[in-house]
Design goal:
Elements lengths: L2 H17 L9 E6 L2 E4 L15 E4 L4 E3 L7 H10 L5 E4 L3 H6 L16 H6 L5 E2 L7 H9 L6 E4 L3 E6 L2 H21 L9 H11 L11
Parallel strand pairs: 6-7
Antiparallel strand pairs: 1-2, 1-5, 2-3, 3-4, 5-8, 7-8
Helix pairs in contact: 1-6, 2-5
Length: 219
């Protein structure tokens, strides 16, 4: 797949996420991996108005090689690509419901979000809470990269979600699913919800290959 096609996919994804209201103002950033290069949205970019010719290009070490200055969150993107060779795209948003859940205590040590819906389990899987750091702090990327269990999405504490996908479409779908399950969780409030049972989780993760540690639930 050529760079022009990959760039077009990224621009289309940005417009789609903005149209859904998941990228207010100039918040959020997207990237795609193409070989040993990373195409990423520039710093301060409006995802609704990305330019095919105006994307930043980094090498696999994070060196800026072309285009405008990249988003300051690029270390998080690089960390996720290093963790998972299958990851081809990363979406980071400030979507309000997921950001709200990122301000709450995590449901378990390995997932800030409980197994509330089958689509969350099958499209995303366990989603750890990463400790707070100022935006762009490379130490947060280091914390994310060092986690010793599998995941495809995380909540950045008091900040928002970041997700990976095997394609830009998959990453966008996962980001939307994270926002939706967080909205449901907040809507339930103090009610005691029914979470998916262990057998139901195993069936979904076995079929769709998503990560979920059955022993990581909080007491």
């Amino acid at each position: 797949m050529g760079q022009a096609v990959v760039s077009a996919e990224l621009v289309k994804a940005g417009a789609h996420l903005a149209a859904l209201g998941l990228s207010p103002g100039s918040s959020g950033n997207l990237s795609v991996r193409q070989g040993d290069r990373l195409l990423i949205t520039p710093t301060g970019a409006d995802l609704a108005a990305l330019d095919l010719e105006g994307l930043s290009v980094l090498d696999e070490h994070g060196t800026h090689v072309a285009g405008p200055m990249p988003s300051k969150e690029f270390p998080l993107h690089l960390a996720l690509y290093r963790r998972d060779p299958a990851a081809k795209a990363v979406v980071h948003l400030h979507s309000r419901h997921a950001a709200a859940v990122a301000c709450l205590p995590p449901w378990s040590p390995r997932s800030a979000i409980p197994p509330l819906t089958p689509y969350f389990v099958m499209r995303v899987g366990q989603t750890p809470l990463i400790g707070y750091a100022a935006p762009g702090d490379p130490a947060q990327a280091g914390e994310l990269e060092r986690l010793d269990f599998p995941f495809r999405a995380a909540l950045l504490q008091n900040h928002g979600p970041i997700v990976t996908g095997s394609s830009m479409r998959a990453a966008v779908d996962a980001a939307v699913e994270v926002e939706e399950v967080c909205a449901l969780l907040l809507l339930l409030g103090d009610r005691e919800p029914r979470f998916l049972a262990d057998a139901e989780i195993r069936e979904l993760t076995g079929k769709y290959g998503t990560p979920w540690d059955m022993g990581a639930r909080l007491a």
